[in-house]
Amino acid sequence: MLHTLDAPAVRTWCQLALRALGQAREEIDALNVYPVPDGDTGTNLYLTVESAAAEVESRFADPGAGPAPGLADTVRAMARGALVGARGNSGVILAQWLRGTAETLADGGGADQLRAALQRAADSAYQAVAEPVEGTLLTVARVAAREAVRAGGGLAQVADTAYRAARDALRHTPEQLAVLAENGVVDAGGRGLVAVLGALADAVAGQQPMGPVALRGDVRAAESCETRRRPPGPGHPAFEVIYLLDAPDGALPALRRRLGTLGDSLVIGGGDGLWNVHVHVDDAGAAVEAGVEAGRPHQIRITHFAEAAARAGTAAEPGEREDRARAVLSVVSGEGLAELCEQAGAVVLHADPDRPPASAELAAAVRRSTAREVVLLLNDPELRAAAGAAADQLREEGIRIAVLPTRSPVQGLAALAVHEGGRRFDEDVVAMTSAAGATRYAELAVAEGESWTMAGVCQAGDVLGLIDGDVAVIGTGLAEVGESVLDRMLGAGGELVTLVLGEGTDEALAERLVAHVRHRRPEVDAVVFHGGQEPAPLLIGVE
C-alpha cells in the first residue's frame, strides 16, 4: 500500500482506469441518455483515458534514454494526453478533471495533496462547463472531493473515501436529473468517473495492471435501456462540433460567449494555450469560424447526430466502399504467424508484444483494408476493450464489423480455416466463431519472479503451463510441462493438436511433443508451425 503517489503509481492508475472503463464501456454507453441519448459516453471516456495512458506510457517507453520520469512530468503527461484525445461532452469534462488533479499533484503526492487535487479537479470541471447541471459527472466529482477533504488518515483512506463517496453520489443522480429517473438509469459520465476513482484507489492499494481487476462501482444499467445510438429529440441541435484550439487565455471569454449563442452543451477545457472545445449546434460552420476568430482550430470533428444514429443501426450499402467486399483482419506478433494468417487470406496487423495496439491503430488497420465488411480476430483477451471502441467508430463510418474475441492465435487460425468470403456475412461470422470456440488453447511461459498462481507458488525461471489463460502446471523444463499440458487438454478429447513455436524455440521441443501425442493418443493428428511470437516459447491448440 502506498503512502505517497509517485510516477509509477500514476502510470498504474492510468492503466487500471483504462481497463476498468474498457470493462464498463458498453454498460456506460447504455446509460447515456443525457445530454444527448446517443449511446457513446462509455466509448468517449475510454478513448479519452486511452490517450492519457498512451501519453504517460511514452514517458516510460525507453528506460535507457535518461532518468525515469518524475511525478510532475507524469501527471502533466496524463492531463495533456486526456486533453488532446478527449471525445464528447463527458470526455472533455473528464480531461479537465484530470488537468485539475495534475495541477496539484505536480507539487507532491501525499494525502494532503490528493485531498487538494480532488477539490481542484472538481472546481476545474465545473469551470469548463458553460451551464453546469447537477446529477451529472460534475456532481459526482464535487461530492467525492468534499468527502475526501473531510477524510482523515493517509493516502489510501483519502482515495478510498473519494471512490466510495463518488459511488454513493452516482446512485442519487436520478433524484437530481429528471431524464435519468424517467429512463431508470444513473448518469453515464458519473459512472465513468466512479470507475476512474476506483482505479485510483486500487493503484494506491498496490494492485497491478496485469492482475485481475475487480471493477469497482458496480451500478448497472436498467435492463430496458437501449444501447443503439438514437437521434436527439426535437429542438436539440443537429451537430456535435469538437476541435483542439491553439489560443491565448484572453481569447476564451469571447469564444465562450459566441459559442453560447450558437448552441448548448458547451464545454471548453485546457489551458496554457491549448484548449479542447466541445459544443452542440445547428450551424457547425459558425462554430468552427468562432474558433478561427479565437485562434487556430485543428483536429476538427463534426458529427451529425441523426446520420450517426442511422449509420450505427445499419450495415454499409453495397458500393459505399469500392475495393473489397469483405476482409478478415488478424492481430498477431511473429513473422511466422503473420505469414500463416496471410496465407489463409487474412489482412495482418503486426502487434508489438510489449505494446498492444490501441483503438486508433485497430481502426486505421480496418480502414486500410478498404472492405465494406470486416471480421476482426484479436487473438489476445487484452484487446477487447480497444477493439470495441474502434468498432463503434467504424460502424459510424458505414463499415460492418464483427469482433471475434479470439483469446489466442491458435483460435484465430482455427477461425481462418473455416472462413469463406462467398458466404453471407452473418453465416461466415457464426462459422468462424464456432471454430474458434471449439479450440481450447494453452501456452508455455517462463516465470519472471515469485508469484502465486492457480497451480501454486512459482519461482523465477520456472516453466508455466497455462490452459485457457490460467496456470495449470508448474515445472522446470519446457518439454515436461508441455507434455503435462497436452495430457490434461487431450483428457477432455480432441482430434487435432496445433503447436506453434515461438522465437528461438528449439524444434526438438515440437518433435518430442508430437511423439508424445502419437504415443499416448495415436488417433490424434498433430501439426507444427513456426510462429516466431514472443515471449511465449510455445502455443498449443486442441480441436
Question: What is the terminal-to-terminal distance?
Answer: 44 Å
Q: What's the story with the biggest beta sheet?
A: 6 strands, mixed
Residue ranges: pLDDT <50 for 5 or more in a row? 211-229, 311-322
Strand content: 15-25%
Q: Count the beta strands.
A: 16
Mean pLDDT comes to 88
* Shape summary: globular
The helix fraction, in percent, is 40-55%
Determine the number of helices (DSSP H or I, runs of at least 4 residues): 20
If you had to describe this structure to a student in words, what would you say it looks like?
- The protein is of the alpha/beta class and 543 residues long.
- The chain has helices spanning 7-31, 41-60, 71-85, 88-105, 111-128, 137-150, 155-171, 173-176, 178-183, 188-205, 252-262, 284-294, 305-313, 335-343, 359-368, 384-396, 409-417, 425-437, 478-490, 507-520; strands at 239-246, 263-271, 274-281, 296-304, 324-332, 347-350, 371-377, 400-404, 440-446, 451-453, 456-458, 463-467, 470-475, 496-501, 525-530, 538-542.
- The strands form 4 sheets. It has a 6-stranded mixed β-sheet, sandwiched between helices. Strands 2-3-1-4 form a 4-stranded antiparallel β-sheet, with helices on both faces. Strands 6-5-7-8 form a 4-stranded parallel β-sheet, sandwiched between helices.
- Strand 10 and strand 11 form a beta hairpin.
- Helix 5 packs parallel to helix 7 (155-171) and helix 15 (359-368) packs across helix 16 (384-396).
- The protein is globular and about 80 Å long.
